[in-house]
Amino acid sequence: MQETLQTLVGGLSLGAVYALVAMGFSLVYRTMGLVNFAHADIAMIGAYTASTFYLTVRLPFAAAMAVAIVVTGAIGLVIERVLRPLENKDFDLMLIGTIGFGIVLQALAIIIWGTTGRAVPSPLDAAPFTVLGIRVRTYDLLVMAVAALAVVGLGFFLSRTKRGAAMQAAALDHEAATAVGIDVGRSNALAFAIGAGLAALAGGLVGPMLYVDASLGGALGIKGFAAAMLGGFGSIHGAVVGGIAIGVLDSYAAGHFQGYSVLVTFLVFTVAIMIRPMGIFGERTVSRA
């Protein structure tokens, strides 16, 4: 029982990171009906940027994270602006465009930071503490707290602000939103920027937990994508539930199946998707293909 609870604690912190990645995927999808395949590499750029400003420039960890969010938010705006002429005209080319941006970001990361990668120390010096025999790292609690604040903040923005309401209106009916004066292009740009910021937040937080290199985006992206699918693509709440589920499952599989952990994780995920293809929350979203 104690071992299971210990695995659960470790899985929750990773799950919080996957949830942030999944939220970025879902936000862009629910707004534009587009899967941003560059999202994973934006998270990797965020991890590199945060680690650079934290380790090299010597900024406080929170400030380094803020810089990373601003940088990746700008990248998100650039991607949306380049793809905007294709909106409602060539959906397939937009998908290919996001893949192309991902390749470009990987190449830029290798040019700027090289291929060796880096280990990022925890920004918290506090030693782990024990609760009922379970060893809890203070950094894990920080990751879960930051992710929870991001979820609450995004939920408040979407439900309680005019800009958030405009984004959701544009997602429901592009033409009707335009007819009532909503700037759909601006809403889409904001969705890309916020999604990229969430990716940077995930990448920066996972730096002290995993090794930061050019392949980090692939590891985060595939599990974040799986989390978004499991929760229901386009559902923010589903992204959170899916992320936690994938994180706990991944942690449990790593502890019990070692080298086969990824295989076990995605076998369980595949079975779950076969049973419920729309995901746990099964929210239908816009399709502009």
UniProtKB/TrEMBL annotation:
| Annotated GO CC locations | plasma membrane
Topological type in the membrane: Multi-pass membrane protein
Q: Which Pfam families match?
A: BPD_transp_2
Q: Which GO terms describe its biological process?
A: amino acid transport
Keyword Glycoprotein tagged = no
Q: Where in the cell is it found?
A: Cell membrane
Task: Give the residue spans that cross the bilayer.
Answer: 6-27, 61-79, 91-116, 136-158, 189-212, 224-248, 260-281
- UniProt xrefs under InterPro entries: ABC_transp_permease, BCAA_transport_permease
Q: What coarse category fits the chief subcellular location reported for this protein?
A: membrane
Q: Does the keyword Transmembrane apply?
A: yes
Top-level taxon of origin: Bacteria
**Listed GO MF terms:** transmembrane transporter activity
Alphabetically sorted, this entry's keywords are:
Amino-acid transport, Cell membrane, Membrane, Transmembrane, Transmembrane helix, Transport
Family the UniProt entry places it in:
Belongs to the binding-protein-dependent transport system permease family. LivHM subfamily.
Q: What is this protein called?
A: Branched-chain amino acid ABC transporter permease
Q: Where does this protein come from, organism-wise?
A: Streptomyces fructofermentans
